[in-house]
Amino acid sequence: MLDPRNDYISVTYNKQTHPYTEYPDLLAKYLVSRYELRSNQRLLEVGCGRGEFLRGFIRQGLEGYGTDQSDVARNLCPDAKIKLANLEDRIPFEDNFFDVIYSKSVIEHFYKPEKLVEEIYRTLKPSGRVITLTPDWTHVYKSFYEDYTHRTPFTQASLRDIMLIHSFEEVEVGEFLQLPIVWKFPWMKYLSKIIACVTPQVTVKKFKFVRFSKEVMLLSSAIKPE
């Protein structure tokens, strides 16, 4: 992870280049429905950044917790319990505490992602669920290192294996498109694949549908055994 003294959030995710959108709320709602998360469950977002995804889960009725090297998320989530931490060392919460631990675009920033997975396992309750989103190396290998803080790329196989090796069960990993219309109409993923293949890279930043057809994520879910 980055040195906490470096202001990664304000530089990489400033409001001019990355304005707030409705996407975090839509994603939180989708994941709550897909994994049948329940109101008042304790959810920790690891690497909560600006806090918009954490706020999305809170709006769905979950009890929100966050941890990051920056406390920027407190601006959007004043009622959430957010702790500063160097996540290369530990997650600053007690054992067997959370019902759900969520992260998006975080695990790939670690030199030793196995340490993060160990900490997630430790702080999850038995039967708790971990939900992880990370770029799919097989689709984004040309652009992955444009973010110089990226350390460890993942494929479906490697993301599945790191969870299984650390004793998680019911591990599921698959491609995930950041396009809410595809979640509603799954058949559109085939259109998205065609667009990703035939559209020149220079048009990616101009059109969201094109960009997120090419920038495929991995979505994984796993359960800590009883």
How would you summarize the topology of this molecule?
Layout: H1 8-12, H2 23-34, E1 42-46, H3 52-59, E2 63-68, E3 81-84, E4 98-104, H4 113-123, E5 124-135, H5 137-140, H6 156-165, E6 169-176, H7 180-184, H8 188-198, H9 208-214, E7 217-223
Parallel strand pairs: 1-2, 1-4, 2-3, 4-5
Antiparallel strand pairs: 5-7, 6-7
Helix pairs in contact: 2-3, 8-9
Radius of gyration: 17 Å
SS strand fraction: 15-25%
Which stretches are poorly predicted, pLDDT < 50 over at least 5 residues? 1-6
Mean pLDDT: 90
Strand arrangement within the widest β-sheet reads 3-2-1-4-5-7-6
Termini distance?
A: 31 Å
The main β sheet shows up as: 7 strands, mixed
List the secondary-structure elements in sequence, H or E: HHEHEEEHEHHEHHHE
| Oligomeric description of these chains | single chain
Structural class per helix/strand content? alpha/beta
Helix content: 25-40%
Shape: globular
Number of strands: 7
Overview of this protein structure:
- There is one protein chain.
- The protein is built from 9 helices and 7 strands.
- 32% of the residues lie in helices and 22% in strands.
- It is globular and about 50 Å long.
- Strands 3-2-1-4-5-7-6 form a 7-stranded mixed β-sheet, with helices on both faces.
- By secondary structure, it is an alpha/beta fold.
Short description:
By secondary structure, this protein is an alpha/beta fold. The chain has a 7-stranded mixed β-sheet with strand order 3-2-1-4-5-7-6, with helices on both faces. Strand 1, helix 3 and strand 2 form a beta-alpha-beta unit.
